[in-house]
């Protein structure tokens, strides 16, 4: 999978969907985006809970920004906020063209360090809670691998 001289770009963002999505709608969306991600050499993970989205995209910077720009322009997303953007040597989600998990309210409540992040409205002051967002991503990466 492609990367540029700086390494692999990993970009994590949060957003609030403009309408709640059912599990069936989410699965259909993931099935639509996976072929494009595979073609672009992107990997990542998308978590959805009650209209809140946190997603990490990994790959060549041009491919990551192509997909991220499309997400920002998508009317289903509001309050898109980049939480982290950096170059890394290795992917965290190397085997997933796009891992997906619909996170229940109970699962969020069970994550001790995630409680403050979950109380915040997506898109507001997320930089203060970035570590919790990454811990959540890591928890689900390990538990769904």
UniProtKB/TrEMBL annotation:
SUPFAM superfamilies for this protein: Acylphosphatase/BLUF domain-like (SSF54975)
Gene3D superfamilies: 3.30.70.100
BLUF domain mapped to chain residues: 8-99
Transmembrane segments: none
Pfam families: BLUF (PF04940)
Protein name as annotated: BLUF domain-containing protein
Annotated source species: Nocardioides flavus (ex Wang et al. 2016)
């Amino acid at each position: 999978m492609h990367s540029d001289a700086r390494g692999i770009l990993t970009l994590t963002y949060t957003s609030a969907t403009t309408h709640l999505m059912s599990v069936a709608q989410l699965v259909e969306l993931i099935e639509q985006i996976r072929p494009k991600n595979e073609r672009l050499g992107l990997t990542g993970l998308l978590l959805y809970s009650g209209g809140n989205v946190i997603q990490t995209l990994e790959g060549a910077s041009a491919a990551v920004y192509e997909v991220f720009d499309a997400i920002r322009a998508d009317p289903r997303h509001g309050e898109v906020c980049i939480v982290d953007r950096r170059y890394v040597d290795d992917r965290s989600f190397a085997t997933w063209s796009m891992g997906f998990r619909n996170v229940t309210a109970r699962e969020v409540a069970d994550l001790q360090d995630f409680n403050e992040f979950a109380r915040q409205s997506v898109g507001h002051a997320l930089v203060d809670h970035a570590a919790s967002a990454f811990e959540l991503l890591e928890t689900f990466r390990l538990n769904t691998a």
